[in-house]
Amino acid sequence: MSLELTPVAFVVIPVSLILLFFRTAWLLPWAIYLSIFQAAAVVNLSLGEFAFGLQPGFLAAGLFLLAAVVQLVRSRSFAIPQPVRRTYSMLVIFGGLAALSALTLPHLFQGVEVFPPRSGVRLSSAAPLQAVSTNISQTLYLLFLIGLSIVVSILASRGGVSRTHLRVLQWAGLTVALIGAYQLTALGLGLPYPSDVLNSNPSYAQGFNQVIAGSIPRLSSTLTEPSVAGYHLVGFFALTSWLVLAGTGVAGSIATAILTGTALLLTTSTSGLFAFLFVVVLFVVRIARTRPDLRRKLLLGGGSMVLATLVVLGVWGFLSDGPFFASIARLLDEVFLDKVQSQSFSDRFGVDSASVGIVAETAGIGAGWGSTRASSLLPNILSNTGVWGVALLGLFAFRTVTLYRTALRREDASDADRSVLMGLGAAVVSMLVASLIAMPDVTHLLFWFVLAMCIGQATWILSPNRSDVRSKTSGRGHATAPLGQGEVS
After folding, report:
1. Residue 251 to residues 146, 159, 427, 450: CA-CA distances in angstroms?
2. What are the DSSP calls for 400-412, one per residue?
3. Which residues pair with residue 51 across a beta bridge?
């Protein structure tokens, strides 16, 4: 057994401890910002063939959760608002049954052919089902994220999502875009790139040096691979774009929307690009139906994205080693037209199909949480938790959407509160679209933070004492609640 502190640890650990003891209000923004450094690790643990790396975001989020629970218990204010309680009830039941399934189903259905999570998404990785370490690790991740999400929603429901947290989300998106820009520059010009720092987590296969169309590098930035980068970037793009269109963005939102959209295109991630198109269509339809006053901003935004696309094409042409137009045509063929003929697509489609078959082989119960891994979200949930898991998560989604729509219809809600809720909702839906195409994991911190804020914001809008809380904020925009769920001074 060996334990290693990475270079990241010498920044993240001291700052996190300082915030824990002296500036607790900054722990949540700090955790949100660190959630983008998924490919990095603070501590690496090796035990035989098992290797585990602790992401910086999970360290900060763990300290935040500890501090939040202690503070809420001490203040005797751990009352969970009824909308939060009702919405999360199905998710809590899912988490409990998922934990039980991880402990029992691998033994009950031992020998059923599955795809071990650490073996990659390949048809050749199929192996007989048995209890493995990922049953425990994935269960711990899931329970932690559910608890974290509930606490963040409770805090957000007391004063709404503050501009501080919107700024942090914006800074995180800008960081991903700018580091990704340097990554492509470094790969194209042979400059040094700190992969030993940004890609130090042994829990994941690191894809920071992937290329497409023979020689064009793909952007992955602080994430493990281009598709994961596209998944995160589409969330940032959806949130900041809507806030800009609604006129409630914070300083720099326009730049963030353009840069994250451009970076998303540079990932050449098929799932990210389809989610990007979904966001664009969603905004166009929504504005055409309900906000004709925003059409001018939409046209300006569309023009900016056309310009960004031209910049991306220029970058691709510069990075390619062949004729410009031939390289672009080859790239577009590989991203869209030839995708279904690739070995990667065959493996992913085959694994998803076989994962659905696992449900039948286990009588609809599933192989147990953390036992197998598909290529996309729905087959992954089906193969691990069976019909019951999909049903419970479906009920959770239905209650979340009902809460969201009820809050939007609240007549006394301010335009600012409503637009923040819609931006968060757009981010959640766009990331789910990418997941349904080719993102099976449910352990991405950013998604849970955005989802929790969305539920908390909707609950805040429906709060009967919202005007009373607003009157006590002295013009600071949002109420200051425990752990800085408001403006941070």
Report:
1. 32, 21, 19, 20
2. HHHHHHHHHT-TT
3. 46
State the amino acid at position 368 in one-letter form. Answer: G
Question: What digits encode the pLDDT tens for the residues 152-170?
Answer: 999 999 889 988 999 999 9
* Distances, alpha carbon 359 to alpha carbons 79, 109, 382, in Å: 39, 11, 7
Helices (H), 75-192: 82-108, 133-156, 163-189
Three-state DSSP string of 255-314:
HHHHHHHHHHHHHCCHHHHHHHHHHHHHHHHHHHHHCHHHHHHHHHHHHHHHHHHHHHHH
- Integer-rounded Cα Rg, in Å, for the chain is 22
SS3 annotation, 328-353: HHHHHHHHHHCHHHCHHHHHHHHHHH
Q: What is the pLDDT of residues 285-344, one digit of tens each?
A: 777 666 666 666 667 766 776 677 667 667 766 666 666 666 666 666 666 555 555 656
Q: Alpha carbon 472 to chain centroid distance?
A: 33
Q: Are strands 127-128 and 43-47 parallel, antiparallel or unpaired?
A: unpaired
Instruction: Tell me the pTM.
Output: 0.90
d(CA 237, CA 129): 39
To which residue do tokens 């400059």 refer? 191
Phi and psi of 30, rounded to 5°? Answer: -65, -45
Distances (CA, A) of 220 to 208, 223, 308, 389, 430: 6, 6, 18, 31, 18
Q: Evaluate if residue 451 carries a pLDDT over 90.
A: yes
The structure tokens listed for 430 are 């766009």
